[in-house]
Amino acid sequence: MSIELLPWHDAPLRGLLSQREKLPHAMLVYGRHGIGKVKFARAMAQSLLCESINTGVACGACAACGWFSHGNHPDFRELKPEVLSAEDADTEAPGGAEDKEDKEKKKSKQITVDQIRELANFMTLSTHRDGFRILLLHPAETLNVNAANSLLKTLEEPPPRTLILLVTDQIGRLLATIKSRCQRVLLSAPDTATAVAWLQAQGIADAELALGQAGGTPLAALAFADAQYQSQRKAFVQVLAAVDADHLAAAQAFEKSELVNLMTWLQTWVGDVALSRLTGEVLFHRDQAAAISRIAKRIDLPALFRYESQLRQTRRTIHHPLNPRLLLEQLLISYSQVITPL
User: Fold this and answer.
1) CA distances from 227 to 188, 204, 238, 241 (A)
2) pLDDT, tens digit, for every residue of 109-139?
3) Among 39, 152, 230, 256, which is most exposed with the fewest C-beta within 10 angstroms?
């Protein structure tokens, strides 16, 4: 199986691989969500474990690449929270859907100290192929305090030919002691042309629209390109585009929709209105640029910013028990007051 290498990762990966004999014992790969940081780390791990005489990216054909592709290379471990590992499994939990749901609730969302301790033999015994020993840990910000402190011991005294790859899009949440012991690798989002070309190659018809809604991050854009998602988004933003919309009726119509999606569409719509007013540009809802421009010309900008602050505060509470319909009524009525001409 060939290596999965995203086109915007090629240059930074080859740059690091050219220094494979001088690599540090730990690297912290960070950047925006949705640019493929874990894919980059896996590509790097496979390339370092590849047994081809080629010193570039993995060949995808040798025995080591085969083991890696099937998830059983003896000198590679990937560590993540139990709940993420469960999402990768295809098997149904015994006992039916209810039993499975109960078990999922018990799975940790953190990387625990027990998971770190279970790596003791892997980190201390000799490698099977007399090459690199690689540990990939993600998302690094899910390390709880005890797990982070346990990992520090390995970071301070790593075995020879060991590389620990930590991946995060929330670098500010990591302990300073962890960050100080890693070489940082900042991955950037691709330029628009590269991202659009890649999305089109994945079969995404309106790649620019999906990319805009994802804030320029192509992997996140794949989810935004879903036909059902786009249909629901268009129906909701048409309510926002209509100055004379019946917002009470709209709240009733959308009360069973995913509240997280509704909040996302409302926040990004407000962001587009502000951006259009200030620069004439639209980032997220480009298919509604004309409507956004009309609204932007009539709103009071300070009032819009106060409403945006209200949305941010509301976002923090949407996972708490509440009445979605009443919340939507409140938000949409407040929105109508902002866009109503003076």
Assistant:
1) 28, 10, 17, 21
2) 899 999 999 998 899 888 888 889 999 999 9
3) 256
